[in-house]
Amino acid sequence: MRHENSVLHQILKHIPWSAFERLVEEQRSDKHVRRLTTKSQLIALLYGQLSGAQSLREIEAGLKSHEAKIYHLGAEPARRSTLADANALRPSAVFADLFATLVGLAHRGLRRKTRDAIRLIDSSGLRLSSLSQSWAKFSNGVYGAKLHVIYDPDADCPLYFATSAANVNDITEAKTMPIQKGATYVFDLGYYDYGWWAKLDAANCRIITRLKRNTPLHDVNERHVPKRQTTILGDRTGRLPAKMTYRNKNPFQKRVREIMVRTPTGKILRIASNDLKSSARKIADLYKRRWQVELFFRWVKQTLKIRRFLGTSENAIRIQIAAALIAFLLLRMAQICQRTIKSPLAFARLVRTNLLHRRPLDRLLAPFPPLIRNPDQLALALT
Questions:
Q1: What predicted TM-score, i.e. pTM, was given to this entire model?
Q2: Count of other CB atoms within 10 angstroms of residue 265
Q3: pLDDT of residue 369
């Protein structure tokens, strides 16, 4: 009878373990470690993400009950206290760098012209308990963190992430993000900074964002809007205010495009771009794609585990968020390798149900074979 690895084993095959071992060596993550290597820590966290475990105790019990299968993965069961210490003390950079490595592998088959590359930038808040108040206090009685993401809507995966306290402004974190020259960047009002816009423009990037209601345009030239474009109310070019404050000059002095768009709810948006050549409809449609990063945040929060955290320290939170995004990429890579299940959500749910069962990924929907109770049935099954 053909041997089949567990579903978890098949998903973890997408991790480049040699690259992970180099990261562990570079960060000296396993130095002076007597119990629970960083590899075992990663597998335990991924098991928790993919199985839906709600606590360290649940992860410990689940791994202990499948000790033989975990052994064949090259890992060992994790005790609750040991895993908690590892999350608090091991460098989170190992997991962040592994995520970046996986992004390169997942994105390798999706090379496209740089100008066609779309990058959505956004953040999402994560609620924390008062036990994290030493680093994540937002206001009286409110504690939280932020997950900042650069998202590729065509590849349906994040390309970059960062974690910060909830009181850190989105634009502060965006200024540290890598910029891909010539790409299209779409973002909302949280990234309203003319200096950063000028930096993107200098890198030959197309910018698509929104203008605040009280931002005036000077030296305005109206552009023709076709009558059939019922949702586009106006299209014009102009210049932003010459000064940001009384003394500070605006570094972004180029002409910009303003497109007035009415949404289905009746709200009017002032979409701004440094693209003076594309049609107003194309720019409006590109801004509309920003909703895809919101759907990504919703999917991750509902399917993986970044709503309830296994630790309270900043390092533990960073590691758990990295593990969740690594799990997301592994699910995407595993789903591509089979053609039976088209829905990412359905695939994730079936993986959770069959996580430590021995069956191929393209047969997760197939029923289990009936129990064979006598030799005649066994002989018939083997023919």
A1: 0.89
A2: 5
A3: 52
Task: Report phi then psi at 275, rounded to 5.
Answer: -90, 110
122 three-class SS: strand
Specify whether the CB–CB gap between 350 and 361 falls below 8 A. no
Name the pairing type of β-strands 268-273 and 118-128: unpaired
Ramachandran assignment for 182, one of left (phi > 0), alpha (psi -120 to 50 degrees), beta (any other): left
144: which 2 tokens? 């939280």
With a CB cutoff of 8 Å and minimum separation 6, the contacts of 277 are none
Alpha helices in the chain (DSSP H): 7-12, 17-27, 38-51, 56-65, 67-71, 80-89, 93-106, 133-136, 170-174, 194-202, 280-288, 291-303, 314-336, 344-353, 375-382
What is the arithmetic mean of pLDDT over 112-118?
Answer: 67
Phi, psi of 92, deg, nearest 5 = -70, -20
Task: Tell me the DSSP string of 35-102.
Answer: SS-HHHHHHHHHHHHHHT--SHHHHHHHHHHTHHHHHTTT-----HHHHHHHHHHS-THHHHHHHHHH
pLDDT value for 383: 42
| Contacts for 232 with CB less than 8 Å, ≥ 6 apart | 225, 259, 260, 261, 262, 280, 281, 284
Most distant pair of Cα atoms in the chain: their distance: 91
Which residue(s) pair with 128 in the sheet?
143
In tens, the pLDDT along 302-356 reads: 999 888 899 999 999 999 999 999 999 999 999 988 888 888 899 999 999 999 8
Domains and CATH numbers, the chain: 7-98+308-363 (no CATH), 112-296 (3.90.350.10)
Q: What is the Cα–Cα distance from 356 to 51, expressed in whole angstroms?
A: 9
